[in-house]
Design a protein that fits this description.
The complex is a heterodimer.
Chain A lengths: L1 H29 L13 H24 L2 H22 L2 E8 L11 E6 L11 E6 L6 E6 L2 E5 L4 E3 L2 E18 L3 E7 L9 E4 L6 E6 L9 E8 L2 E9 L3 E4 L2 E18 L3 H27 L1
Antiparallel strand pairs in A: 1-2, 1-14, 3-4, 4-5, 6-7, 7-8, 7-14, 9-10, 10-11, 11-12, 13-14
Chain B lengths: L7 H24 L3 H11 L6 H20 L14 H12 L6 E19 L2 E16 L5 E19 L2 E10 L11
Antiparallel strand pairs in B: 1-2, 2-3, 3-4
Helix pairs in contact in B: 1-2
The chains are: A alpha+beta, B alpha+beta.
């Protein structure tokens, strides 16, 4: 009896660990503690339990070989295959958002992306293209990119680009902000990729100790491109007032000017390496689990 | 040999094999350094366990340290104690280095910090809205004598907080207009 108990204990604890992993992953995701999907595997505790499950599966595999239990062997092999494929897919997955202005080229660097989630072994999408056109503004628009002289339209649907996929998420006008000082000349000249249609936006430059608050004002008469600008430093507001496109605003020894505006597109990249194999492994595991269940029922009835 | 013929005690042990991992999972999480996640879950069920007070204390400490850096004419020795991310500390150093505007030093003094809301967005992030009132005055850089009057300034500030190494740190601090939706008084 004790031998039978010890033989069944390892598979049962492994099953218990698996169910507990599923339960807690669900709870963590449902309460918003972790974002849905791969981020749950960023938790050390989840990885540790997954490692224990892998060890449990290996031990059960050895026992099934000794016992010559084919259904348990199949189930353990399918479980290990599922774990391996999930680990591979997690390590190589990539999701990221990036903003490109018209005429700007994509570079596979971390600084290109504003947010996202990257597996430890996943490279940044290795693609080379230039954004040539964005039309029209808003979420329902599209972007045109040029890759090796060939133009491609990117809309809201996922489109393959190299080993990754890309889609259009939105567009807006990026103001070209130029900051200069009388003594040192031009200090900063950048297209600031903020969406002014969503109201006032706050931005700053790494090189300057100022914060800028900018919003687009409703057109007054002939002033179509009218902005409301506030320049702050520390806890103080140094300037607040209206500024037209091209108008220089003097603020404590510096000059700020919104020189131009250019359309930019918000694009989403993703790489889902090994996902098909992972789905196949999950299907295989389900089939093996069903076969094992049918066999246990057969034994009980027999 | 099916499970049906096993004695009751063994069945209980089998049940334990399922229940033990379920109960032990959060404990493993705490041991693995994921305590913030399970504390966040617990605070959902027991609101008194939320971290609002710790987050408020970090914002207050940040502003006290901010004031010290300016009052000490940009002395950076205490910068390591500022509860802020490396990026924010760097910008503080950068700003304090440029304090000597025409031989004058800017000195700040907190008049009031009125916490309007503290929202924990996740186990490792929070957003705090604070109505701040500050007094400031320019002083001579060499003699440290007062130059001009004491002025007052006030603004609503949004602090993006991040939890790193068990402590809440300021990740971003930006001004907000009073009319922003969701800004409530007395929270």
């Amino acid at each position: 009896m004790s031998s039978l108990f010890s033989k069944k204990l390892v598979p049962l604890v492994t099953l218990g660990l698996t169910l507990s992993l599923l339960f807690w992953s669900l709870v963590l995701t449902a309460t918003g503690a972790v974002k849905p999907g791969w981020p749950v595997l960023d938790l050390t505790s989840v990885r540790f339990i997954a490692l224990l499950i892998a060890l449990g599966l290996l031990a059960s595999l050895v026992m099934s070989l000794l016992e010559r239990s084919r259904s348990q062997l199949c189930l353990c092999l399918a479980g290990l295959f599922l774990l391996l494929t999930a680990t591979y897919a997690y390590l190589f997955q990539f999701e990221g958002m990036l903003s490109l202005a018209e005429g700007e080229s994509y570079e596979p660097f971390p600084s290109s992306f504003s947010s996202g989630h990257k597996g430890a072994l996943a490279p940044f999408p290795q693609a080379s293209f230039t954004l040539t056109r964005v039309e029209p503004d808003g979420k329902t628009g599209r972007a045109v990119i040029v890759q090796k002289g060939v133009g491609t339209e990117i809309d809201g649907n996922w489109r393959e680009i190299g080993s990754s996929e890309i889609r259009f998420k939105g567009a807006a006008l990026a103001p070209l902000v130029v900051v200069s000082s009388l003594e040192k000349g031009e200090l900063e000249r950048s297209f600031v990729k903020v969406d002014l249609t969503h109201g006032e936006q706050v931005f700053e430059f790494d090189t300057l100790p100022y914060q800028f608050l900018l919003r687009q004002e409703k057109p007054k008469g002939e002033d179509k491109d009218l902005f409301h600008l506030e320049v702050r430093r520390g806890k103080l507001s140094l300037f607040e007032g209206d500024a037209r496109l091209g108008q220089k605003v003097s603020v404590q020894g510096i000059e700020v000017v919104i020189e131009n505006q250019r359309k930019f597109a918000l694009l989403e990249f993703r790489t889902r390496r090994g996902l098909v194999v992972l789905q196949a492994a999950a299907a295989l595991f389900l089939a093996a689990a069903l076969v094992a269940l049918v066999k246990i029922k057969g034994v009980k009835q027999g | 040999m099916p499970e049906a013929v096993l004695p009751r005690a063994t069945l209980k042990t089998y049940l334990l094999a399922f229940l033990a991992p379920l109960v032990l999972f959060p404990l493993v999480g705490v041991a693995c350094g994921d305590a913030a996640y399970y504390r966040f879950l617990l605070a959902k069920a027991v609101p008194s366990l939320d971290e609002s007070e710790r987050i408020k204390a970090a914002v207050t400490e940040f502003n006290n340290r901010f004031m010290d850096i300016y009052a000490s004419q940009g002395d950076k020795r205490g910068i390591g104690a500022v509860p802020a991310t490396v990026g924010v500390r760097h910008s503080l150093v950068k700003d304090s280095g440029a304090l000597w505007m025409g031989g004058r030093v800017l000195v700040y003094d907190i008049a009031s910090l009125d916490f309007r809301s503290v929202q924990q967005d996740g186990p490792l992030s929070a957003t705090v809205l604070v109505k701040e009132e500050w007094n400031y005055q320019y002083k001579d850089g060499k003699t440290y004598k007062e130059v001009g009057q004491v002025h007052g300034t006030g603004s609503l500030m949004r602090y993006r907080m991040v939890r790193q190494g068990g402590a809440w740190l300021v990740q971003k601090c930006e001004p907000v207009r009073e009319a922003v939706k969701g800004v409530k008084k007395g929270v």
